[in-house]
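Teaching assistant here, posting this on the class forum so everyone can see the example we discussed in section. The complex has two components, and the goal was to see what a joint structure prediction looks like when all of them are supplied at once.
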Amino acid sequence: MSRDLIIQAIVSGILMGLIYALVAVGLSLIFGLMEIVNFAHGEFLMLAMFAAFWFWTLGGLDPLLSLPLVAALLAFAGILVHFGVIRPLLKAPMLAQVCGTFGLAVALRAMAQFLWTPDFRTIANPWIAGRVQIGGIFIGQPQLMAGVICLLSFLALWLFVTRTETGLGLQATAQDRQAAAVMGIPTERMFALGWAIGLGCVGVAGTLLSTFFYIFPDVGVNFALLAFVAVALGGFGSILGSLVAGLLIGLVESLGGLLLDPSYKTVIVFALYLTVVIVRPNGLFGRF
Amino acid sequence: MASDRARMLEVARSERVWPRPPVWAIGVGVVGAAFLLAYPFLFKTPFSHHLMILILLYALMAQSWNVVAGLSGQISLGHAIFFGIGAYSSTVLFIKFGITPWIGLLVGMAISALAAVAIGVPTLRLRGHYFAIATLLIGSSVQIIVQRWDWVGAASGLYIPINRTAPWYYLQFHTSKVPYYYLALGAAALAYLAVWYIRRSRFGFRLQALRDEPDAAASLGIAVARHKVMAFMISAAMMSVAGTFYGQYVLVLDPERLLSADISIIVLLMTVLGGSGTLWGPALGAAILIPLSEYSRIWFGGTGRTIDLIVYGLLILAVCIWRPSGILSLFEERIRRRSGGTS
């Protein structure tokens, strides 16, 4: 096995891992805020990819241009989901919460299949295509661009959460809902904001993914599973934890696929999850 | 021990924890049982038989899920594993060794129970969401591995050969669906009887106690982890029975469908729709959702465009928001109000 092959796997693993991380951070944020696991997370990723696809096919908008539009659409969807679905479930038993978001996932996936058929689609000839060669390794330009935008999104998110008053309010709500409410933080609005940011991140990730990945109604399932793993590894509610865990998963997946067998790469990642939750139930960087 | 339980049941009865069923309920039960027994003769089309076989099998599967989630409070999202084990055990034994599916049924139950121990011991002590996600990932991994496992047909699955001269105990009834109907009815009836018994047994009371108040239950000396694993084993064995009969009935084992998370999720949706933790909720859920999906498949044909899952999803969402205890509780409330509100 040549050195180039391994470097290639590492680079692609990191680039894919950034996407996983951006999908996971939304899930993590939502769980950190209100202890609800959004089992429909992958379906929103799928919707974002279809949104980017239709903007391109019908409106001729390149994914680079539709990126803010899709992110805004998804953020709006997040607010709708919060007020329509999540708020009534907040005080319900856990089974109802799990089933509620699962019901949403099943309905969204079936709706996508009904409206757009189960066909695989791709965005034909986006502005950025092709690949660059550095030494002996090849990097797809869409993947490279996706990686850069993911990193910028993480930076923006991190600055927002740690440097602005609203972001601090978000953190306070995640730490102690009641204490935050007593301090005059509008926790209800923070929950809605959490959903908006969470699904906004999915919107960005989905648009980026749509430039180099197949678009079909079930596409979100596997990404959601990997996001669950990332969130469990990184600890619920931690932004940097999600980033590191996403990268780790991308690396384990691509190196595991290279060294063992590509068809088992997800199984390796799932095994990693099981090991971590059994040995360290609060994630690698768990805060409690 | 036996006298212990008798005394406990006496206490339970005197406290009206288990009120004696009223006359009308016994009447409904007798009429319902008579209807189910006579069903193949009342409705003669193969489709009506097929529909009822599916309802009974899914009622069994949902009940199996209910034992884990409804009684012990753990949300499993990987029950398709046990369904698959049941189908594969009997089929592999039959195809490769010519062993009757009846023995395959028992082997499948045993393997499923062992698998439940292997999965349950490390994961059942995880808190709520972690356990749910762990089972989801294990289920997905099992599917990926089976799809690459050549000995059991890998991704193309297995076909059960039709053998018209095989004796009855090889479960080869291809001229009529009626025998399959009675098999499914018998399996479901046994499962419901078993759960009825478990719910009012000492073991069942302990499970419900540790579901509602895990810390209090543990402090009273209930071995929480062991009870959860035992419930998981019972549930896995029940699921495996459904898998064996399903495999023998459809004759095609397709890992893409058989082991998909969809199976695990559908039994969850059925149980929650009907009412999780209740005896009849899973059956009610199956009786609502199966006709919905079968009729929707007829209306929309093989276009891949079905509306059943859209309705499923929204129905579940609505139930979770407005009635987290399930549809059955609507009836229960009405009955309770009419009978003057004891218990």
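For the discussion questions: The domain at 43-338 of chain B is CATH 1.10.3470 (ABC transporter involved in vitamin B12 uptake, BtuC). Chain B touches chain A at residues 69, 75, 122-123, 126-130, 132-134, 136-138, 140-141, 144-145, 148, 261, 265, 268-269, 272, 276, 304-310, 312-317, 319-322, 324 (CB under 8 Å). Think about how each of these relates to the inputs above.
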